[in-house]
């Protein structure tokens, strides 16, 4: 079957029938949104079935963030209760070691690469698997459910939808509360910073997220509703985002590109070349560098493995990078606008200056001292 071909209708119907019999369905995805038709179809399926949608290792926006059916980035919070699950274009739907899954649940997979050809071992049990273009497959699934749905199913789906709307509103309130505190000098709250950025940018601006340990601040505080307006980290390869930002700008010349990165990852991105290329070829990007003074992921990984180990007792994690580097100067050397932000009271003005430089055709780097690791 080619990626554009329709799937065997019998196979799709079998999945649809299991979905319509379920009481607590969920969908997990990561990169269905690479096709800009997918987010609307995923939401249509979710509304039709009263089904929550989760993302994990998010690479694209797969459903608009203000959809009441979007349940966040932690599928593990729901897998133990779910009696039906649908994986759509996702390589790692959850971390098995820390996730409990209902052993009686029915799990199906719709995926452009259903057998994970480049992954030596893929250990997520499934009841059904269909390979193909997820947009085409979801459209088939919707068509079957719309033609087969009973009044009882519609009533149950609507009730689940109301519950999901309540939960979504609560999640948004929690996210807003995280951004209330601005932080202090040299320790700006990243949630507050991202919330202000979210208020300043346009719907069609593209946000590229390599904030690593502050990933959730970007995702939770910067609402993205337009397909293609969000990209995340696809896996290994720290430092990918600066070059990727140039590629996005080359492909979408009319849209602003705002890329978030940690100080540790920024070192890996060959930044002097990035801003020289941006200047030479007229590809202005805005980099928001969240500087916590080191590799927080290294420290946290060590603590997870050895919570009472010698590294903790001596406070030696080999992750401290310090604050000696003037990252803004690196961008300025290539003709970009550089901002050094340490005071939370200056967040709004600094962001506005960076966006003004971007709109004038000049790259900008906003070096922000956030809460230390």
Concise overview:
This protein has 373 residues and is an alpha/beta fold. It has helices at residues 9-21, 38-49, 134-148, 151-178, 190-200, 215-221, 240-251, 263-267, 271-280, 296-305, 310-314, 327-333, 347-359, and strands spanning 25-29, 52-55, 84-88, 106-111, 128-131, 183-184, 187-188, 206-210, 230-231, 257-262, 286-291, 337-341, 364-369.
SSE inventory with pairings:
Elements: H1 9-21, E1 25-29, H2 38-49, E2 52-55, E3 84-88, E4 106-111, E5 128-131, H3 134-148, H4 151-178, E6 183-184, E7 187-188, H5 190-200, E8 206-210, H6 215-221, E9 230-231, H7 240-251, E10 257-262, H8 263-267, H9 271-280, E11 286-291, H10 296-305, H11 310-314, H12 327-333, E12 337-341, H13 347-359, E13 364-369
Parallel strand pairs: 1-2, 1-3, 3-4, 4-5, 8-9, 8-10, 10-11, 11-13, 12-13
Antiparallel strand pairs: 6-7
Helix pairs in contact: 1-3, 2-3, 5-6, 5-13
Question: Which structural traits does this protein have?
Answer:
Rossmann fold, 40% helix, alpha/beta, 13 helices, 13 strands, six-stranded parallel β-sheet, 373 residues
């Amino acid at each position: 079957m080619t990626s554009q071909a329709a799937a065997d209708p019998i196979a799709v119907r079998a999945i649809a029938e299991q979905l319509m019999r379920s009481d607590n369905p969920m969908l997990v995805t990561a990169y269905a949104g690479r096709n800009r038709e997918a987010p609307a179809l995923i939401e249509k399926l979710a509304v039709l079935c009263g089904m929550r949608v989760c993302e994990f290792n998010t690479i694209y926006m797969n459903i608009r963030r203000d959809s009441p059916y979007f349940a966040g980035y932690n599928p593990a919070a729901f897998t133990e209760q779910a009696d039906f699950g649908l994986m759509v274009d996702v390589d790692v739907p959850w971390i098995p070691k820390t996730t409990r899954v209902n052993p009686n649940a029915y799990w199906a997979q719709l995926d452009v690469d259903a057998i994970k050809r480049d992954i030596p071992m893929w250990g997520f049990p499934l009841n059904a698997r269909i390979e193909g273009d997820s947009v085409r497959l979801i459209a088939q699934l919707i068509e079957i459910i719309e033609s087969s749905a009973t009044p009882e199913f519609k009533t149950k789906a609507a009730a689940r939808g109301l519950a999901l709307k309540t939960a979504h509103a609560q999640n948004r309130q929690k996210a807003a509360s995280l951004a209330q505190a601005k932080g202090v000098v040299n320790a700006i709250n990243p949630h507050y910073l991202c919330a202000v950025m979210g208020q300043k940018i346009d719907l069609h601006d593209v946000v590229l997220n390599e904030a690593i340990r502050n990933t959730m601040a970007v995702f939770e505080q910067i609402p993205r509703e337009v397909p293609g307006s969000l990209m995340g980290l696809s896996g290994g390869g720290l430092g990918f985002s600066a070059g990727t930002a140039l590629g996005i700008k080359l492909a979408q010349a009319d849209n602003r590109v705002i890329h978030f990165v940690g100080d540790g990852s920024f070192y890996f991105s060959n930044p002097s070349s990035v801003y020289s290329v941006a200047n030479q070829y007229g590809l202005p990007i805005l980099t928001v560098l969240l500087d916590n003074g080191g590799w927080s992921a290294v420290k946290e990984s060590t603590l997870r493995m050895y919570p009472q180990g010698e590294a903790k007792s001596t406070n030696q994690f080999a992750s401290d990078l310090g604050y000696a580097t003037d990252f803004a100067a690196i961008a300025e050397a290539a003709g970009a606008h550089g901002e050094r932000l340490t005071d939370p009271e200056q967040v709004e003005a600094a962001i506005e200056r960076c966006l003004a430089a971007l709109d004038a055709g000049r790259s900008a780097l906003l070096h922000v001292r956030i809460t230390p690791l």
